[in-house]
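Bench notes, afternoon.
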Amino acid sequence: MTQSLYPTFHYADAPSAIDWLERAFGFTRHMVVPGEQEGTIAHAELALDGSLIMLGGGGPGTPAPGTGSVYIAIDDPDALHARATAEGAEVVYGPVDQPYGSREFAVRDPEGNTWCFGTYRPAPDA
């Protein structure tokens, strides 16, 4: 199946955000397009377990940095929670077992975006 939904985040310091997302969550760089100004990012795509997110430095008409949120399905939320908090992620909740069967947690990155990770994998009807 081809991915058709791409969460997008805006950062005041996109280069530092990319570095942190790699260390804290294990993202890898798929594409990074430098911005017009030295040290900025116009567009980036980061991969995790076969899916991509997009991010950049923002601009006119884009949401303010730190206002995004996403849920990402993973197999081992406890290990990722430990990794993320070791990198300074602000804990929102968890890890916790949810009544619908998911083990999950949520943290904020250094610019305030909320990242939720859990074992629940919703699927559209076939």
